[in-house]
Amino acid sequence: MEHNGNITKEDSFSQICRNIYAGVISVAILAILVVFPLYYRDHYFDILESKYQFYYMTMISMFAVVLLLSLAFLIVDALEFKAEHAKACIKKCSSAFPRDVRTAVDVCLIIFLVVAIISTCQSDYVYEAFWGNEGRFTGLFLHLIYIAGFFVISRLYRFKGWHLYIFLAVAMLPLLFGITDYFRLDLLGFKENVAAEDVDSFTSTFGNINTYVTYIGIVLGMFSALFVMEEKGWKAVLSFAGYMITFLALIMSNSENGIIAVGFIFAFLPLIAFQNLRGIERYLWLLSGFFAACEIVSRINALDIPVITLDGVCRMLSNFRFAFPSALLIGSVALLFHFFCRKDKGENVNNPGNEHQNGELGKKYVKIWAGFLIACFCVGIFVLYDANVAGHSERYGSLGTYLHFSDAWGNYRGMIWKIALESYAKQPFGHKLWGYGLDTFGLMTYDYRDITKSMNAQVYDSAHNEYLQYLVSVGPIGLLAYLGFLGTAIYIIVRRSREKKWGIAVASGVCCYLLQALVTINLPIVTPMMWTLLSMGVANMEKDKKRLQK
Predict the structure, then answer these.
(1) pLDDT band at 119, cuts 50/70/90?
(2) What is the distance between the alpha carbons of residues 393 and 228, in angstroms, rounded to a whole number?
(3) Which of 482, 450, 462 is nearest to 417 (CA)?
(4) Is 524 helix (H, G, I), strand (E, B) or coil?
(5) 8 A C-beta contact, residue 242 and residue 175
(6) What is the DSSP string of 57-88?
(7) What are phi and psi of 299, to 5 degrees?
(8) Among 30, 420, 427, 436, who pairs with 463 as Cys (CB 3.0-4.6 Å)?
(9) Which CA distances in Å does 217 have to 102, 220, 318?
């Protein structure tokens, strides 16, 4: 009986420790997801530095509290339980680690960390590579914060869906600020001292419109997935309302990068949605909402009120001639599916043995859509070949400017990518293998500054492609380790989430960020939220729930 009593006391002690850890980490997570997007000091003039400092100070504070708590718990464990908990933890890590599904995630992340440290130590600019002060503050120091944060949150955090509900609810504020900026209202006075030629390039509480639209992509991906997965009607309505506001903000942002997130949502969400009739209905509503948002912006632009002049893809969306009939037609089909689903559900209530209960369709239509995506991918490869290698970009009309890669492609991204690869090719073997050092891109390409200034009067300290940036910063091994970490983490989130709708929502938001990273900069303005969401998603594992129940 005494032994059983000790076990009960030990289990109670473990539970108390876990609850305290989870509470501390939850405070830090809410600070990053809720306060961080809205935080600023001197408006746009120090937006990068202020958010960077807010993030690392929040995380270091969390690490410090967790460390102090761990020391206190160890002392109590040693005095009360003869360090049984510490011994069990060490034994568990040494024996279970190789069999844990998270092993691949951990190994990839540790390899990335080791390569980043080697890259920094062998860099020609060790100080700059550590702090990232010659770039965007994404040096080794910030990556140490990201990686340590991932391990702490994914291990000690207890997933709570309401944390993400608050994140999405508060996300409406910076999006609404961005929408009011579209109407040139500047409610927060951010643009009072901004040069006239730059005033439309900055918006909301994020600064550059491309950074802002990266945040929009995360929110859009999460709202879209939530709407498709949500079972409760009123929550689905709120998710759709958030989706519509987010889509309006995306079009009004006047940044072409957002179309990448849109493409991901409509291309890959059917792999989840098409498993049942309700999912198909919700996907149709998303499509209808997309065209409705285009029509709303079009009607706003027709009014005699001051608004930002849209360019590129955003202008094409706002000028789409068939937006209203498309929204009406697809919405009507969605309504038919809605009534059909209700009828099907009513019949299944009276016939509980029906194998197609709740409109489940299995994997048939998912496989058909997957085949369609593969076919589209093949066509896309041919079109890119035809537009670039064969030189037939004129066949594709206005789309030819997006399909044909040149120095001017993507607001001179083509030029800076070429410069990045040329600079990397000139490096000695050591720098090719381990990279030039995190966030030292501007130093590596210093000799090209006169060229970039003459072409578009700019100096580049980033490759404007996160993966190319990692290639030249930490070499091919570091890049592959980073991609392996992301891929295995997303796989775990999708396949092993105990709260499936949140697993899909987090994965969708993170994937929207990662795809936009092909043309954007890794900044401590939005990237910290991506790492936080990824860590929370891994913490939402089915195995953790089973372990706690034992």
Answers:
(1) very high
(2) 37
(3) 462
(4) coil
(5) no
(6) HHHHHHHHHHHHHHHHHHHHHHHHHTTHHHHH
(7) -70, -35
(8) 420
(9) 27, 5, 18
* Spatial separation of the C-alpha atoms in residues 472 and 286, rounded to whole Å: 39
- pLDDT band of residue 344 (cuts 50, 70, 90) is low
Q: Are 506 and 533 in contact (CB under 8 A)?
A: yes
State the residue for tokens 């405070």: 27
- β-strand pairing of 202-203 with 207-208: antiparallel
At 101, give phi and psi (nearest 5°). Answer: -65, -20
Q: Cβ–Cβ contacts within 10 Å for residue 369, how many?
A: 17
Q: Which long-range contacts (CB under 8 A, 24 or more apart) does 48-52 make?
A: 48/136, 48/137, 48/207, 48/523, 48/524, 48/525, 49/137, 51/524, 51/525, 51/528, 52/137, 52/142, 52/524, 52/525
Beta-bridge mates of residue 203:
207
pLDDT one-digit tens code per residue, 400-419: 888 888 888 888 899 999 99
Give the Cα separation of 395 and 546 in Å (integer).
Answer: 57
Please check whether residue 256 is in contact with residue 212, taking contact to mean a CB–CB distance below 8 angstroms.
no
Residue 325 CB contacts under 8 Å (≥ 6 apart), including other chains: none
Contact present, 66 and 24 (Cβ < 8 Å): yes
